[in-house]
Amino acid sequence: MLYSRINSSAATLTKNRTEGSITPSSGMCVTCVDGCIGMCEIGKSAYRGHEVIYPQPFGVITTASEKMYPVDYSHFNIMGTAVGAYGIEPDSDKAIFPNVRLDVVFGHDKGLHFKYPWIIPGIGSTNIAKNNWEGLAIGSALSGTGLTIGENVTGMDVDSIINRGKVFDTVDLKRRVKLFKDYQRNGYGAIIVQANVEDTRLGVQEYAIDKLGVECVELKWGQGAKDIGGEVKIRELKKAQMLYERGYVVLPNPTDPYIIKAFERGAFKEFERHSRLGMVSEEGFAQRVEELRKAGAKYIFLKTGAYRPADLARAVKFASKYKIDLLTVDGAGGGTGMSPWRMMNEWGVPPVELHSMLYQYTKQLHDKGEYVPALAVAGGFTFEDQIFKGLALGAPFVKLVGMARAPIAAAMVGKTIGKAVQEGQLPVYVERFGNSIDEIFVTASELRKELGDAEFESLPPGAIGLYTYYERLAQGLRQLMNGSRKFAPEYITRDDIAALTKEAAEISGIGYITDVDKEEVQTILNS
What we know:
Layout (H helix, E strand, L loop, with lengths): L40 H8 L27 E3 L25 E3 L5 E3 L3 E6 L3 H4 L2 H11 L2 E4 L3 H4 L4 E3 L2 E4 L2 H12 L6 E6 L1 H6 L1 H9 L3 E5 L10 E4 L2 H9 L3 E3 L5 H8 L6 E4 L7 H14 L3 E6 L4 H13 L4 E5 L10 H6 L4 H17 L6 E5 L5 H10 L4 E5 L2 H19 L4 H4 L5 H4 L3 H8 L1 H5 L3 H23 L13 E3 L2 H7 L9 H8 L2
Parallel strand pairs: 4-5, 4-16, 5-8, 8-9, 9-13, 13-14, 14-15, 15-16
Antiparallel strand pairs: 1-17, 2-3, 6-7, 10-12, 11-12
């Protein structure tokens, strides 16, 4: 069985000439014909070269791997029961799904309160993030969840004021923080500022703490989409030159007179901006945590990606030793920006394997009496069943599930519908629900009542889209938890799911479905 597709993908805007006859190992057409214009990835690479490494068209898409892993979260089923209740009185009139509580409390002082057990991990300097930030920030704040401002936002901002290598003022970062804070209610949720090598050199997190009142910051080791630094495309020469001067790796060199002339005559249309690799060491990690605490950070998070097991062990141990408040572990295959397409498909540890090792390593430290931070798992989560399984696989240590592409999609759809309403151009598929924001968005009446007419009317439709998507996830998760008789996230346990294959059971340590409840079964049958 082949797990990967090669040589043709919507992500790279390529396809095979002979769609029905493909050599499995290479992805090439069985008959590669002299005279073909080059529609496949090999052919397109013959004339566009390195441009074809990345998903296209950049700036208006999010991307994720299309590789089929041997084990994924669909290889587990949620276990329900007909008896009892945890977290509520076992009374049929009280143990109903609307009474399931979804809020989560975490942090070293239990000072972080989320209404729902999920968070948006780092969404940084890509156009897709910037163009949808209103919806993401306001929708997250209204929902009482977490949102992370990802890497390179300050460095990419042409209006940032940088003196002697340190950020003095910003426009984009300031706007992103303010949008969330202006709509945050009753202290629920959090806005988090993440930093990579460039951000740390610029002093972005110190600026965010001191000037913007940010309490949560996150150290970034990596993500599930790639094992190199972040990258974006730049279509303006002056911006490429500015980023080069700020210390970024920009390809080709935008200060080279020959490159400038080639760009101006249209030989190529985009520069690439790359971030540097972080070099993890315990000494450096400890020093940075101490610096952030001295700068006034109230909560410090760490996000790591789909690296090899030894790196996961480092993340777990360092997070324990230096009292990190949240450790996010992102499995292979995910992504929101411009990760190299083959890298996104072919590197790293997949989510189930990575999250299973995360549980095992964390439990080992916990059993020795060492401090264990709250955990978040990420990597392709989209719906309530996956959220339940992620919480169960890592119970009791996993408190949150990280999602990025799905919330961005919800915000984008909300924004698109809002524009269609404004222009009177609603497609029939949507128009059947009505012609106004109040008619189309099922949560509109609830939000209007809570916020009042004036504030509701000012909401960007993207925010309503994200809020409504979250409302669906919340009700769906309550129903699943109700069926398992678990009336709050802290009652979810690993035996609330069962493995459907022996391989999934072996990897995760979750019971194979016919082995579940074996002892209790015999007790019942022999009573």
